[in-house]
Give the backbone structure.
Amino acid sequence: MSVGIIANPASGKDIRRLVAHATVFDNNEKANLIRRILLGLDSLGVRRVWFMPDYFGFYQRVLDSLAGRCRLALEARLLDMKINASQDDSRRAAEMMAAAGVSCIITLGGDGTNRVVAKGAGNIPLLPVSTGTNNVFPVMVEGTVAGLAAGLLATGAVEPEEALQRTKMLVIYINGRPADIALIDAVVLADRFTGSRAVWDASKIRQIAATRGSTACIGIASVVGGLRHIGPAEPCGMHVIVGSPTGDAAVSVRAAIGPGLIKRVPVVAYHLLQPGQRIQVLESPCVIALDGERELRINAGDSAEIELSMEGPWVVDIDRTLAAAAARGVFREHRERPAGNK
Amino acid sequence: MAPNKEEMLDMYRKMLLIREFEETVANLFSQGQIPGFVHLYVGEEAVAVGVCSNLGDKDYIASTHRGHGHGIARGASVEKMMAEIFGKIDGYCKGKGGSMHIAAVELGFLGANGIVGAGLPLAAGAAFANKYLKNGGVAVCFFGDGASNRATFHEALNLASIWKLPVIFVCENNMYGISMSQERHQNINDIADRAVAYGIPGVSVDGNDVMAVYEAAAEAIKRARAGEGPTLIECKTYRFRGHFEGDACVYRSEEEVNEWKKKCPIQRFGTSLLEMNIASREELDAISAEVKEQIKNAVEFARKSPYPDVSELTTDVYCD
């Protein structure tokens, strides 16, 4: 009966605060959010919570503040791992949590954080809480509620089939071998460097592969959404070929590719991607942005492909979980009436 | 606008020039050939070069006690810088500034500075001058994580934000204020978070990735030139050598140093240039050979230059 927490201390700080109008999410606020998650978990009797160690020290800071009036009954433990302040910390932590048998991993970060955690989590479901910038995968949810949903799953009050939803993902192949994944979108850019990682110059976009599309999203998924809505559970994705800003593309999509950053993206062609279908990356050398961050460099002479997979990470559906618990009366308490008082 | 090939090779050359300069100074200092103290910039080259590659003639930079890299990135002559560090008359300050007070106002280089955090109000002042003169220039202040705890940090950011001054505050967060680790001297990890308190953008970038620094600086400078005010850029980096030459570095592990050396900004940029077909191995090797020759000549120049006459002692103290 345990839960893992992976909080990315680096999320919510990148260049999008400068090139767009993204929110700053400072780490003390994330620590606050984790406190509320723990209180939610504790209230349902979760016995153990595993923390990923990190350079900010969420574990100690959170527990220090819960040692007084709000003392926890649950046992919080820190994974015994060396960190190097890179995204690989999150992947390794997810692997260790999966090996420790957690019921789910609560993540604090954006799409990028969840992409990395998904690589290590295997079949362990994620409960993604948004604290990043491009937040299509994680949800904006109050920490207490996130803690309650994870607690319901961990304690068995709600069955996995009631709580979980399988998501899609994209697998990126370089020279025929799987190199990385994306949960929401893989965007081919006419760029040579990963640099400050974010994508804000729409003129560099050449191709988009996406698992979802919605104009309610911030990020490249909003370009896809402008062509056709694709829900998280729909068994398809989309491939978009983007034209040059000065070209003669027949269609252009106005999309919120970043917070406050609404651009016109010229579209040459688009088609639905079927599960297992692979598309060829048409530009080389280039950079591929995964879930909003320039991540993979495709060197001159290398070939790359992107495949839609239906075997993305399992995710805890917070609304469904809480509704199932409520329907079962988990939150109701009946006061015992004294005998004879009918 | 992304830099073109020529600009990228110039960035590579400047990073190598800083590295070669600093390693040569370290060597000469250990032989007792350089007076005073030296604080070297080895490992942090991407920050100075990534930022300064975006600057123009009207722009200013204010530096720190670890200022050689900033000067070279701004385009200072390595001969005159080396002569200054040697304390010779042909140095930028006639040998009277030395390593920690080297300045070249003609290049907009407001000087290295022995006082931690002293560059912040200087840069705010220079930015004010540019704004007052309406010349389109900006000012950049380099400072460290330790300096972000000084009152000057608050004063400069507060004033710059309220007056929308065209200044870019570039924090070189190398994780240590002298020997004190960041986790022991401040209750936050990302200094960029402090921007929120001044109502300005604050971003954290990989300070060992010259293109990441370049992009962030380009956007911040664009914003400053457009009259939108200051930006705080935090560059996460690391100094490969001690705080000063001779520092035993007992406060950090060899393992930590070696981990950071694997993230060497020059090697990373060189590898990218090759892998992305921007430059050939021969081109990079030729730059490396030129740089070595340039530094050799700089040392020769400094050695041959005379010490200032004793009559120089009272000149350049006050402005006429």
Notes: The first helix of chain A runs from residue 16 to 19. DSSP finds nine helices and 18 strands in chain A. The domain at 2-167+313-327 of chain A is CATH 3.40.50 (Rossmann fold).
